[in-house]
Design a protein that fits this description.
59% of the residues lie in helices and 11% in strands. The protein is α/β, with parallel strands linked by helices and 290 residues long. The chain has 2 domains: 126 residues, Aspartate receptor, ligand-binding domain (Four Helix Bundle (Hemerythrin (Met), subunit A), Up-down Bundle), CATH 1.20.120; 149 residues, 2-Layer Sandwich (Alpha-Beta Plaits). A hairpin with a 2-residue loop joins strand 3 and strand 4. GO terms for molecular function: diguanylate cyclase activity. This is diguanylate cyclase. It is an enzyme of class 2 (transferase).
Length: 290
């Protein structure tokens, strides 16, 4: 979910909270129909009833932005679809004057409870992502970096994947703060991270490691591939334009891969060392840890 903005995450949490309320109201109406034998809504009898309710419409509107990012939300939508399918079955039996078997009701209730669990799990995913975001740049904080890298390292140890990481450090960043003020420096940081995100793949991640240092993590990526990606990033960063002053923002990169013979911390140190080699060689360049 790294490409979602903080505003999108906050909106997602609010929408999920509203979805809980709306489905509680929908459930109360379902009970009213079953107990009082009044006619159900025609939309609840349709095969696509799960797309007619408020949550289903929200899913349709946001499927390209939210759902491509979250497997949890995909699971929620499948649970939501099954709840509406189960409700349609109950409504059809009532409409035909038939009794609802206990097993049918139990299956429906089980599905409804699963959907509520999926809603809370999705909400937790959004909230945790937001909590671990740097408020200025919207990169992830370093809090979960080591844990995330250790999970990936375990896959490397089992021969399941290659995994690259890069250390990015802004060149002469202090000069920007000294010449144009810290507000300008903040703008440069935030804008550049958004520039980086726009060039990363959906499953890549960027963490704010400290100050103007960032770590970019790239699953299923070789050292050479990561080097090519960072070269494109380096160029994109240098081509940015800012409204204040005649400045060119550049960055230096050190690139390495997680190796079986190294710990995660040692790999980070290798990326850091390669980045300082880029600084020593003149800045605004990419150095590979070979």
């Amino acid at each position: 979910m790294d490409s979602l903005t903080n505003q999108q995450l906050q909106a997602g949490i609010a929408e999920l909270d509203h979805a809980i309320y709306l489905h509680d109201q929908w459930y109360k109406n379902l009970l009213r129909v079953l107990v009082s034998r009044v006619s159900p809504e025609q939309s609840d009898l349709m095969p696509d009833a799960h797309l007619k309710c408020a949550f289903g419409k929200w899913y349709e509107d946001h499927s390209e932005s939210f759902f491509i990012e979250s497997q949890q939300l995909k699971s929620l939508f499948e649970a939501h679809k099954k709840v509406h399918s189960g409700a349609r079955h109950l409504f059809q039996r009532i409409s035909n004057g038939l009794v609802i078997p206990v097993d049918d009701w139990d299956n429906f209730e089980s599905g409804r409870e699963r959907m509520r669990r999926e809603i809370w799990a999705a909400r937790h995913e959004f909230a945790e992502t937001l909590k671990n975001r740097d408020s200025l740049t919207e990169a992830q904080t370093r809090t979960g970096l080591l844990a995330d890298l250790r999970k990936q390292h375990s896959l490397v140890l089992r021969g399941k994947q290659t995994y690259a990481l890069a250390m990015l450090d802004f060149d002469h960043f202090k000069r920007i703060n000294d010449s144009y003020g810290h507000a300008a420096g903040d703008t440069v940081l935030a804008s550049t991270v958004q520039c980086v995100k726009s060039h990363l793949r959906p499953y890549d991640r960027i963490y704010r490691y400290g100050g103007e240092e960032f770590i970019i993590c790239m699953p299923s990526t070789t050292l050479e591939q990561a080097g090519e990606m960072m070269e494109r990033l380096r160029l994109a960063i240098s081509e940015q334009h800012f409204e204040f002053g005649d400045i060119q923002v550049t960055a230096s990169f050190g690139v390495t891969v997680l190796r079986e013979s190294q710990t995660v911390k040692e790999s980070i140190n290798c990326a850091d060392k390669a980045m300082y080699e880029a600084k020593s060689a003149g800045r605004d360049r990419v150095v590979l840890d070979v």
